[in-house]
Amino acid sequence: MRRADRLFSLVQLLRRRRLSTAAWLAHELEVSERTIYRDVKDLVSSGVPITGEAGVGYALERGFELPPLTFTREELVALALGTRVVLAWGDPDLARSAKTALERIRAVVPDTLRAVPEETTLSAPTFHVRTEQRRGLRELRAAIGQKRKVRLEYVRKDGRADTRVIRPLGLSFWGHAWSVTAFCELREDFRHFRLDRIAALDVLEDVFEDEPGRTLGDVLRRIEREV
User: Fold this and answer.
1) 192 in a domain, yes or no?
2) SS3 186
3) Which one of 70, 97, 120, 196 has the fewest CB atoms closer than 10 angstroms to its CB?
């Protein structure tokens, strides 16, 4: 659970009972009592009216309500545009998450701003997006998160295809195409592969570890030096 979600859940738990011990809160949130002490201290510092102390219990002042999320109109427009870009160019999982996130934001903003995301005139058309432009995006995202090697059948500019085993490190969207930044085991160096040139993709069981000189940070620093 993300810390922000945990703090929100902590406030909701305190709201349900007149007095809550750190042990009970820790059990409900599946964290240590020490984490509860730290979270309560941070909430109090931010203005949440919690009374009590460690070893006794905590209580939330009756009638307290978390303030609604505050966004400016321009911030909501930016979020709506970002969602539309993901809907157009992301894989189904990313698109679903972006849509859900925007719906959650709309549910908690003031009524006067709730319609802003739908009324924005900024768009990201999808009619020109070809399936191959985001081919393997979901699989590559998963492989990056799990640090698993990937075997690619990759079509080069000259039309010839070859097989590469890569360590996928990151994905970049260029406004018209996706590419995966990886350490290529064949070339023993960093390479960038366009997703629309990947003819076939297989996520392997082989797991790789970060090694000095072969990480995403290393390739980004190299790019910065060359630009």
Assistant:
1) yes
2) coil
3) 70
